[in-house]
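Posting for a labmate who doesn't have an account.
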Amino acid sequence: MLLEDTTAFIEELEVPGDTRRRDRHCRRVANAELELLRARWDAGVTSSAVRELELELTDGRHSVSPRVLERRLRAFRRHLENVRAELEIRQLRLERLERLERGAHGAEAPAGARTFRLHSRSHHLNCSARRFARLSDAQLGRPVLVTKRDGRRWWWYRNRFWWDDARLTAAEVERAVLRIDFESASSRLATSPVPESLEVAVWSRDGGRCVDCGSIDEVLFDTIIETITNEPETARNIELRCRACRARRDHSKSRTRVLHARFDVLPYERFAS
């Protein structure tokens, strides 16, 4: 089931620069502590292996030759030296980050950053200005999956937000939205000379948009070339065009030849069956 979320809206926020810097620095400190703990664990395991090999050599009770044990012991000792050197580096890096954290309180805070938040009832989604611009451009041509919450998926498409609980794909959402828009525009298109059997096909083919400017407002069925009265109409001769572009086309005599040429090549391009 696909429903429009009329409560959703986009809000632009200004995040203080010191807050962003503090959060980023806290993540760096946490990662440095985690790397230090891993190095300590590796050093402990290697030291234990070295002690076991040394005891096995001194006791004389071993299942392999002493030469093999000595090679293993040398390899473990070299690895232990490398681990200890890495441990010192990670310890110094953590101490440097902690000093920076203590001294950051008196530093000048950098400029804030623009972020955007999607509000949808109790659901919120923060994204950067770069991601918002990418999503905003993409949703004009195809449904964009914004977030998944509580078994629902929120989609952004045609400047509106939709949610579904049936795990629909982007293509299924697009078809459903076009169908909803077509049904809502049926009363306005009731006086259209286009046969009813072709309306859905033309609407789906052009995506419910004006073929000239891409607008979704006041879209009407427009005949490319006027046909004889008793000649059956075809979908190749019908396009979706907004009221403004239709008026411009009707007042432009110079486009008549172009329209005829377009109609001639339509079967060989995107309308080819």
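Reply:
Got it, the structure tokens are right above this. The longest strand covers residues 113-120.
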